Amino acid sequence: MLGLGNILTKGGALLGFPNKFSFNFDGSNDYLDCGTSLSDTLGDDYSGGLTISMWFNANSTTTNDGLFQFNVSGLECGVIFDSNKLAWYLNGAEWTKSSTISTGQWYHLTCVLDTSSSSNSKIYINGSADSTGSGTFPSAGVLDFSGKTFLIGKYLVILLSLMAILTKLQSGILL
Fold first, then answer.
1. Residue 9 pLDDT more than 50?
2. Which residue among 4, 95, 104, 122 is least crowded, i.e. fewest CB within 10 A of its CB?
3. Does residue 31 carry a pLDDT above 60?
């Protein structure tokens, strides 16, 4: 379930964390591999809502490393850093980018995906809508999640806290 990084595992055994709600990734080989159960639950031809929310603090925002991603050989859905911004990928293509993200600062990120409406799908940074799509929004029912591994913090130097994944559209406290 966990990546092979030395902070997360040692000899296959899970090491303790400072608390139960956060992770500290060292940027070389640490990440959470959540397997395919979430992806298989969402299935292929997904046409529902999806909300992913987290707090993060990154030491680098210029790489193409991911905060989260549903991935096997292509990025079906995920958020990666790209030139000091967050790039949200849907159906293997960049859909939108956030405003500039600085290093060494805590941010609350919420990605709301409404597969029936590009205007209702947004990135929220610290509770405010930060961007709406600028790329091609996938047609309803074309997101194929089955068999995709859900990864968190892939090769980032990052602090990550309080992540939530909901299979519905969310407003209020998560934003």
1. no
2. 104
3. yes
End-to-end CA distance of the chain: 28
pLDDT at 17: 47
Range of the domain at 48: 9-166
Geometric angle at alpha carbon 16, from 10 and 22, rounded to 5°: 115
SS3 17: coil
Contact in structure between 155 and 28 (CB atoms under 8 Å) = yes
Q: Is residue 3 assigned to a domain?
A: no
Q: Which residues contact 160 (CB under 8 A, 6 or more apart)?
A: 22, 23, 24, 25, 54, 55, 56, 67, 152, 153
Q: What is the CATH number of the domain that holds 33?
A: 2.60.120.200
Domains of the chain: total: 1
Q: Could you tell me if residue 174 is inside a domain?
A: no
**Which three-class secondary structure state does DSSP give residue 71?**
strand
Distance CA 117, CA 27 (A): 35
87-121 pLDDT, tens digit each: 888 888 888 888 899 988 889 999 888 888 888 88
Q: Which residue has the tokens 């707090």?
A: 55
CA distance 157 to 25: 5
Question: What is the total residue count of the chain?
Answer: 175
Judge whether 94 and 88 are in contact, CB under 8 Å. yes
Alpha carbon distance 57, 81 (integer Å): 12
